[in-house]
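Tip: read the tokens left to right.
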């Protein structure tokens, strides 16, 4: 009798375990939105967030979604938008990348992004190459469920800057998203003495001095030195972007930093002078070069 009971208990355990571990599957026709997405997170499907990495950690994300950034990976590689967000088959630039990233064409793929636009576009692209169960779940802006992981509201994809930006560490900072790197030396100095690859030239003496700025007390900046705020803004752009300045010794960079901060720039750094640079991005100059004015 005891043996019979043990066999029955074992059979029931196996049956129960088999039922509980059976994967929940999607047909691809379900009406899944941000309002009910939590009900489906346990299903056997790919849950894909198409936002940027920085959006995810700044604005938060839904636990269970993996990240495949549209702008930072898919666009320009797998897909090229020829008509804004209106998908056409010619937008598929590399079918293999899409297949490698999204996998089995018979498996369900749930897409989301910020508002649902990217998700709708990628859904159309995947369906064009044979995916049969793709669902646009919408945008995280509409999500109020219990699986939200909060972001910090600040992260922009960049590492925290060192306490001091110098020629010794500038090479490590040359890939910051949206940053502007400015060499304030003369054009001749750049091509004769060499320059740091990645820095653009906005010559202090040949353009800014006595045009956008007037030095009333040598290199001691005062607000009265600003001759044209508009010209400074035209040259340096968005006030919220990071701007890294350099020159020959750091003097011009320090002066321009003070001027930009006076008109509202909040992320300006004086990296110093090229005389102190010993990094790997140096482009050698031509000692025989002279500017020919025609």
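Filled-in amino acids:
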């Amino acid at each position: 009798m005891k043996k019979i009971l043990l066999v029955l208990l074992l059979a029931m355990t196996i049956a129960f375990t088999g039922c509980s571990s059976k994967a929940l599957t999607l047909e691809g026709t379900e009406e899944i939105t941000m309002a009910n997405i939590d009900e489906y997170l346990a299903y056997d499907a790919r849950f894909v967030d198409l936002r940027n990495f920085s959006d995810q950690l700044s604005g938060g994300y839904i636990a269970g979604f993996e990240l495949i950034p549209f702008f930072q990976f898919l666009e320009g590689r797998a897909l090229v938008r020829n008509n804004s967000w209106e998908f056409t088959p010619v937008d598929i630039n590399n079918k293999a990348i899409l297949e490698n990233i999204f996998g089995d064409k018979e498996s369900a793929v749930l897409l989301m992004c910020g508002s649902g636009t990217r998700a709708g576009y990628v859904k159309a692209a995947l369906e064009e190459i044979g995916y049969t169960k793709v669902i646009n779940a919408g945008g995280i802006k509409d999500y109020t469920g219990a699986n939200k992981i909060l972001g910090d509201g600040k992260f922009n994809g960049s590492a925290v800057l060192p306490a001091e930006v110098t020629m010794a560490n500038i090479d490590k900072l040359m890939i910051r998203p949206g940053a502007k790197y400015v060499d304030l030396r003369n054009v001749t100095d750049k091509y004769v003495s060499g320059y740091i690859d990645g820095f653009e030239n906005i010559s202090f003496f040949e353009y800014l001095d006595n045009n956008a700025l007037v030095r009333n007390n040598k290199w001691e900046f005062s607000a009265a030195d600003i001759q044209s705020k508009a010209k400074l803004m035209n040259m340096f752009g968005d006030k919220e972007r990071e701007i890294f300045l350099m020159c020959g010794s750091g003097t011009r960079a320090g002066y321009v930093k003070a001027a930009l901060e006076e008109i509202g720039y909040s992320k300006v750094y004086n990296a110093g002078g090229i005389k102190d640079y010993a990094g790997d991005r140096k482009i050698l100059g031509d000692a025989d070069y002279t500017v020919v004015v025609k």
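The chain is about 30% helix and 15% strand. The radius of gyration is 28 Å.
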